Amino acid sequence: QFYRNRKFGFNTEYFGIIKLLNRHNINLTGKNILIIKKDESIKTIEYVLKSLNAGNVHIHDLNHSKEIIFSNFDIAFNLTKFSDLDIVPEINFKNSKLECLIDISTSTIFSKLYLDAKKFGIKAINGVYKTMYQEKKSIEILSRKRFDDIEFEKIVTEFVKSKLNIVLVGMPGAGKTTIGKKLAKILDRKHIDLDKEFANEYGISPSKYLLERSEESFREKESLVVKKLANLTNAVISTSGGVVQKLDNYYYLKTNSIIFRIDRDLEKLSTKNRPLSYGGIETLVRMRDEREEKYKYFTDFVVKNYGDFNGVAYLIAEKFKDLEF
């Protein structure tokens, strides 16, 4: 920037990373640091680490090795969009003393690396606010004005929520499709029904497919449809009761989504046109017991459906509006 006949240079990325670390109270002093990269420049992050007195720094280049081992590090920074890689890295968090994973790749809101770290109880931070602070600094440079961080964070939070999908999971007949349609109308979003998407893709309804072929075959085909839904934003997605049967579906759905489980008493579940639910209450009990841990794994929030479908839709809308990041 030229100002009063002088030149001033700024590294807004440096500013964004520093602000992100401060926001989450991350202290790098003396810490062993892992940087995960592929073709990205690491000069800025190296300068950040030096200025904050980090300890030993190891650079893991995915061009040389796909396996990432975290056991010897306190803090890890990921700079790479794994979705761009031909081969997804093998991630090993076992026996890790990792305190925090900072994913500043900005590939998705919830990357697989981010989600796996959370699963192992590791503090995980995505790069959304780093990008926000970086843009804020650019605006301040251009306008020569200071702006309040809090106001920008409110804007970013609302922007992120406008992009996030709301995904509904739960037992067959729990009301996911009906509630999803009502929720989409409340929030003025597009509603996507996984069963309809399956029928559009393969020219056969899920119920008919399951009557003619195996559930395993159905889940494989269904997962391909789910993978396509990962690219959606600002939608309400009603899934099938068994979408939780394949773990890959979690990563596809969670990429840009908050997941709500619709829970309903078994005796209230509809079994019409649901071949896997035939057999009465005993079949439903076995199905619930088999899937219970999987539902828990997929779910961010649980909402009980006592039969007031409108009420459930409004409750989900309120919970979503109150989200903070």
Description:
With 325 residues, the chain is of the alpha/beta class. Helices cover 44% and strands 17% of the residues. It contains twelve helices and 14 strands. The chain has a five-stranded parallel sheet with strand order 4-3-6-8-9, with helices on both faces. Helix 9 packs parallel to helix 10. The chain is globular, with a radius of gyration of 23 Å. The mean pLDDT is 91.
Secondary structure elements and pairings:
Layout: E1 2-3, E2 6-7, H1 12-23, E3 33-37, H2 43-51, E4 57-61, E5 67-69, E6 75-78, E7 90-92, E8 100-103, H3 112-119, E9 123-126, H4 128-143, H5 149-163, E10 165-169, H6 176-187, E11 190-193, H7 194-202, H8 206-212, H9 215-229, E12 235-238, H10 247-254, E13 257-263, H11 281-298, E14 301-304, H12 309-321
Which features characterize this protein?
single chain; 325 residues; alpha/beta; five-stranded parallel beta sheet; 12 helices; 44% helix
Which segments are poorly predicted (pLDDT under 50) over 5 or more consecutive residues? none
The major sheet is characterized as: 5 strands, parallel
Taking the alpha carbons of the first and last residues, their distance comes to 33 Å
Whole-number mean pLDDT: 91
State the helical fraction. Answer: 40-55%
Structural class: alpha/beta
The coarse overall form would be globular
What's the total count of β strands? Answer: 14
Strand content: 15-25%
Strand order in space, largest sheet = 4-3-6-8-9
| Tally of separate helices | 12
Order of helices and strands: EEHEHEEEEEHEHHEHEHHHEHEHEH
- Gyration radius, rounded: 23 Å
